[in-house]
From TrEMBL:
The keyword Transcription applies. It comes from the Bacteria. Keywords: DNA-binding, Transcription, Transcription regulation. This is DNA-binding transcriptional LysR family regulator. GO terms for molecular function: DNA binding. Signal peptide: none annotated. The keyword Transcription applies. PROSITE patterns: HTH_LYSR (PS50931). Residues 1-59 form the HTH lysR-type domain. Pfam families: HTH_1, LysR_substrate. Belongs to the LysR transcriptional regulatory family.
Length: 305
């Protein structure tokens, strides 16, 4: 039994709650993960995991052992990094999940710089506005805007998205140009709703000016749960949008969208990098997060926290 491989297999099973997911994360077979954990238990003469056909649960002894193993693996990685050339030590796979507009407009165009600096990091980029199961899907980190739904995750605030309200010229020709947020409640107007994935509810929008606070209310002819589709709906003239300015400004410059309600402010949207608790933040993950912070700092409408 390779003890290092066995320890890695055990920690991944605990973190994902599944032998299958652990095997996928380690790029080995289910049989290999099962045998490694069984050999580890036989060597320790302790039951580390309760297995049923439906789930895998860590035992009390297994939980205590897991906490110590995580620290050992972290120390080993830090030792390797300390003795190696810093850039050469940054290798292996990173699984990251980011919102689709941020990926398309900001991160993916900047990735040639990341790959040039760190050619041995294999980046697996999940692009979705849906909140993934960071632990269950064995994702190293997620980048998300707004309040985090999962309070158990570790999070670092990496920016604040400047927000604005917009509509297409064709929409304004039909419905008129609102001068106050309450005008959007008129029958002539429509909003495009953004659906929160977990609840299926439309995300509220509140605006402020000179001590006055108004919630945007109105009819939603359409609601979507994807940022790119949300923007496309506004460009098609289907209703009024509230989007981060980095998404809207290129279309404003081309005359495809117009900013509405001058003088009114929408609260900035916090932007977080979140990752599983207890898991060691590897050198390559720290490097990626720092690179993301640098990329975001170059965006005019993304303020550093």
């Amino acid at each position: 039994m390779d003890r290092f491989d066995a320890l890695q297999a055990f920690t991944r099973v605990v973190e994902t709650g599944s032998f299958t997911k652990a095997a996928r994360a380690l790029d080995v077979s289910n049989t290999t993960v099962t045998q490694l954990v069984q050999q580890l238990e036989a060597r320790l003469r302790v039951k580390l995991l309760h297995r049923t056909t439906r789930q895998v649960r860590v035992t009390e002894d297994g939980a205590a052992y897991y906490e110590r193993v995580v620290r050992v693996l972290a120390d080993l990685e830090d030792a390797d990094t300390g003795l190696s050339n810093a850039a050469a030590a940054l290798r292996g796979r990173l699984r990251v999940d980011v919102p689709s507009p941020l990926a398309r407009l900001v991160l993916v165009p900047a990735l040639p710089d990341f790959q040039a600096r760190y050619p041995d990091i294999e980046l697996h980029l999940g692009v979705s506005d849906r909140m993934v199961d960071v632990i269950g899907d064995d994702v190293d980190c997620v980048l998300r805007g707004g309040d985090l739904a999962d309070s158990t995750l570790m999070a670092r605030r990496v920016g604040d998205l400047s927000m604005g309200v917009y509509a297409a010229p064709a929409y304004l020709e039909r419905s008129g140009n609102p001068t106050h947020p309450r005008d959007l409640a008129d029958d002539a107007h429509r909003l495009v709703g953004y659906l929160r994935w977990r609840s299926g509810r439309i995300a509220p929008v509140t605006m402020h000016r000179d001590g006055e606070t108004v919630a945007l209310h109105g009819r939603h002819a359409l609601a979507v749960d994807d940022g790119n589709a949300y923007l496309a709906a506004g460009l098609a003239g289907l209703g009024v949008l509230c989007v981060p300015r980095y998404m809207a400004e290129p279309h404003v410059a081309r005359g495809e969208l117009r900013p509405l309600l001058p003088g009114w402010q929408v609260e900035p949207m916090p932007l977080y990098v979140a990752f599983p608790p207890h898991r060691h933040v590897s050198a390559k993950l720290r490097t990626f997060i720092d690179w993301v912070v640098g990329v975001l700092a170059q965006q005019a409408h993304i303020a550093r926290p």
